[in-house]
Amino acid sequence: MASSEQDEQAIGEIVRRFTPPLCAILRRYRLETDVDDVLQDVWVLLLENSPTIQQPERIAGWLRTTATREAVRAVHRRRRECAAGERADEVEAPAAGPDELVARRDRDHALWHAIDRLPERDRRLVELLAAEPDLSYNDIGSRLGIYPNSVGQLRTRCLRRLRRLLAAAGITDAGG
Predict the structure, then answer these.
(1) Do residues 78 and 34 lie in contact, with contact meaning Cβ atoms separated by under 8 Å?
(2) How confident is the prediction along the chain (176 residues), in pLDDT tens digits per residue?
(3) What pTM was estimated for this model as a whole?
(4) Domains in the chain, start-ordered, CATH in brackets?
């Protein structure tokens, strides 16, 4: 079999294997109809960068990181479009009534009370994410004094703890 045929088969296998988990990552960013476009961008980037990938065994991590970055870029593009008024089909939400404002205030108070019960590093992470949601893992890592590669795991554990605290307080169910 020729090398180019082997390359095509290898790429095909990578696409079959990693499309479902990459789609799951992209859906977390609520990209709705943009998931296919962003996924296509990820595959194009893989093809463009494949000659420079020195550790093929790390392709899964590279794909996850690339999908996350491309999803963030898509979210930023959509925000810019909305801010520029290019999405006239979106309707502004009506102003909240007094009952909704009180409920929101109570929910926010309960949320921050639960956050206060988190360990110090988790609390600092949540505060960073709330204040500056667009920070990169490098920025978060440097501010928390941890390796950027550890930020995702810390975030996952932190959010699990927070979910458990909120469920214990009766604010959410244990699943989310």
Answers:
(1) yes
(2) 456 676 677 778 888 888 888 888 888 877 767 788 888 888 888 888 777 777 778 888 888 888 888 888 888 887 777 666 544 444 444 556 677 777 777 777 778 888 888 899 898 888 888 778 788 889 899 999 999 898 889 999 988 998 888 888 777 765 54
(3) 0.46
(4) 7-83 (1.10.1740), 98-168 (1.10.10.10)
